[in-house]
Amino acid sequence: MKRSIKLFHQIILMSIITSGFLAIGQEVPVHYFRPNNKAGLNTFETTKNDTTPYAGMKVRIGGNFTQDFQGLSHQNNATPVYVNGVNTNQLASITNGFNLAMANLNIDAQLEDGIRMNLTMYLSSRHHQETWVKGGYIQFDKLPFFKSDVIDRIMKNFTIKAGDYEVDYGDQHFRRTDGGNAIYNPFVENYIMDEFSTEIGGEIYFHPKNGLIMMVGITNGQLNPTVIMSSKIDSATGKLNKNSPAIHGKIGYDKQITKDFRFRLTGSVYENKSSPGNTLFFGDRTGSHYYFAMENTTATSDANAWSGRYNPHFSEEVATFMINPFIKYKGLELFGTYEMAKGRAIAEPIMRTSIQYAVDLIYRFPQQKENFWIGARYNSVTTKPDLISNNITINRAVASVGWFITKNIMLKAEYVNQQYQNFAPTNILSGGKFNGFMIEASIGF
Fold first, then answer.
1. Which of 11, 80, 211, 244 is in Cβ range 3.0-4.6 Å of 255 for a Cys bridge?
2. Backbone angles phi, psi at 264, to 5 degrees
């Protein structure tokens, strides 16, 4: 019996793999879809400029695979703190070597004319070596089942998304590395304060023809939802904690002004007044690509998966906004971020503030093809940690070079230098610094 079940599983797996290769070979058309390869660069929310003809229900199997070679070193001057005879402020000894490969599986289905479904799975990642579902959603760019000319005309400018999806807060999440998907990121890692979460809800986009962008969304405000009533008391209200919805929105302008010049500017907001566990800045289930940077000797790859990042711990309440300019002139790109986030944990009666800014400057060449690039990023976070009186600052400078060997295969290298300032002497990050090189190969299809 067990042998039969195992054989059945193998048959199913081979069927999926085979259908995937067929889908790749045929370049299955999917409406209003962001390609998983070089063609998806500098694509943000999907637009209404889709010319893919509807040819019945189609399923497209895609994937991403990323392998890193790391050459980082780190140091600190923290005061020793002993727990059960172990100095928890002693940094782990790290050396040059390969990190665990990360892989994603992407399934996109064209269910009906203008109706698309996405399901993404993390097959292997630093935080979860086993398979986990990232999320799934359905996107409506047409509503053919109403059979109404009025609704058809309205939907020429509207998009509706519903499900368990990546919250569209800011523009940076469209450029970040997501587990095995590193094809859109000219650098190896994401921001220090990584704004990314998947939540259950819906978004409505309005795309007028003049380049204006407007979106409003509502979610449950949680990565891991529950129907169990909270028994914890909110220190700010003195009442039982509540499960409040999170509201987010975006407004902006995106226009290809001339053949060589594109200008985009957006402002985004996200607010959740009460949550049993908001994870807007701690929603990544895959982990950092800087393995064990600034981690202690007892750290493990999965339990300490977010090396080099900073979580402000706004788990109870958060209100934040972000401004993102994007300018592309021929091969030169400038992408910027300014973010102000306020929030608190349930034990805190007042809100704290975190400010983050970043600038990416990328030059892609040669003209037209843009298969190569050189780039630089500066990223800084200043914040007041919970239960600490003074502000701390984390600065990161990165330089990168890269090559799209084909539209599906990318190779990049970077040098990173990250420094920690004003941390308490008993904090492992006191006087902290890590630097070195990373080499990354990535495949997307």
1. 211
2. -140, 135
Question: Is 181 in contact with 126 (CB distance < 8 Å)?
Answer: no
Adjacent-strand bridge partners of 266: 252, 324
- Mean predicted confidence (pLDDT) in 92-101: 96
Do you find a cis peptide bond into 366, omega within 30 degrees of 0?
Answer: yes
Cβ proximity of 45 and 5 under 8 Å:
no
Give every CB contact of residue 148 below 8 A, 6+ residues apart in sequence.
none
**Sequence-distant (≥ 6) Cβ neighbours of residue 94 within 8 angstroms:** 70, 72, 73, 74, 291, 292, 293
| Count of all residues that appear for the chain in the document | 445
Predicted local distance difference test score (pLDDT) of residue 14: 41
CA geometry: angle 197, 161, 284, nearest 5 deg: 10
Q: Give the span between the Cα atoms of 168 and 213, in whole angstroms.
A: 13
Amino acid at 5: I
- Under DSSP, the state recorded for 80 is P
> Which residues are registered as beta bridge partners of 119?
107, 136
CA 315 – CA 284 distance, rounded (Å) = 14
Q: What is the structure's pLDDT at 242? A: 87
Percent of residues, the chain, with pLDDT higher than 90: 82
Average pLDDT, the chain: 92
**Dihedral sign computed on CA atoms, order 51, 54, 55, 61:** positive
What SS3 state is found at 57?
coil
What is the three-class DSSP state of 172?
Answer: helix
Reported confidence tier of residue 21, pLDDT bands at 50, 70, 90: very low
User: What whole-number distance in Å separates Cα of residue 438 and Cα of residue 17?
Assistant: 31
- Per residue in 265-306, pLDDT (tens digit) is 999 999 999 998 999 999 999 999 999 999 999 999 999 999
Residue 55 has pLDDT above 50, yes or no: yes
Residue 291 near residue 99 (C-beta atoms within 8 A):
yes
| CA dihedral (219, 224, 229, 230) positive or negative | negative
